[in-house]
Amino acid sequence: MIRYEKYSNQYTDRIDCPGTEKHYRLTRADQWCIMIEKFLPLVSPIQQMPVYEDDVWVITYPKCGTTWTQEMVWLLNNGLDYARAGKQTLEERFPFLELSGALSLMDGDSVGRVQDLPRPRHIKCHLPVMLLPDAIRTVRPKIIYVSRNPKDAATSFYHHYRNIVGYDGPREHFFDAFLNDSLIYAPFSEHVRAYWEWSKQPAGANCLFLTYEQMKRDLRAVIGRVSSFLGKRYTEREVDELEKHLSVESMRNNKSCNMDDLLEWARNTTHSEERKQLSKTNFQFIRSGTVGSYRHDMDDDYIQRFEEYERAATEGTDFDFFF
Questions:
Q1: Alpha-carbon gap, residue 188 to 1, rounded angstroms
Q2: Which residues form the catalytic set?
Q3: How far is CA 286 from CA 86, 179, 257, 269, 322, in A?
Q4: Does the predicted model carry a pTM greater than 0.90?
Q5: What count of Cα atoms within 13 Å lies in the side-chain half-sphere of residue 136?
Q6: For a FRET experiment, which of 143, 195, 225, 273 has its CA 20 to 30 Å from that of 134?
Q7: CA atoms of 148 and 165, how far apart (whole Å)
Q8: How confident is the model over 268-288, as pLDDT tens digits?
């Protein structure tokens, strides 16, 4: 049984904003995570949701290469059908399971939408293991999890909060909330470790664990791993074409993937009047697409604090954020 209670501290109080307000701590046995009030009605529907063996799930902590991975996975699992991918948005092809519970002002029934998808379903979510459907352990659909080093993940999430969620505070307050496990989907370290441990178990062959850093270092090799995981084979020329399609510049210019509709929703819904005056920027949902972008946003003190956080997160495991 999942229990929940209102969660408030100096860190949540400083980052409350129109898109994510009223934080709650959810617990299940010895596991816990932070979500917002809007998510609470989705707990039972997600737990009880039917899961099918031919489902394909992409799961990440927010801002860890989710959109990039979704596009790769959908194309590999659909015969590299670029024409269909160009006609349907990624949200239509690969919807976000808990979207209506992850943003306070987002309407709709995202869980019902996923349940009604024709099979095989492609499902995106950011949920920790403890909040996944109960049936996922026994049905064992294919799960692709992507991690990212905490410094870059936090930096990208900060820009997402500013431009999508409606956060107007200083970046230091946001980084403090991340380091103190007081953001939606926190704790980051346990989110990653739980999926890493799942993927290493004998029964975890249905969970492929990737890192953003691997994808940046050798996307072609990752395409090969994902293809094999999905039971697909493609020629060298087809992989060349897909690699070009998945470049950062190509993804930014791809209307089906660049989330322009979400950006417009944010400008009209979560932005303060002051932000609206400043919002004529070049922010794009697919932002820098690099490893090490945190250096533009963190001073030496925060870099050191995040490195200490990384060491604590990986202590006692064979996991490395940069492997």
A1: 22
A2: 126
A3: 17, 24, 9, 20, 21
A4: yes
A5: 23
A6: 225
A7: 21
A8: 565 555 655 555 555 554 556
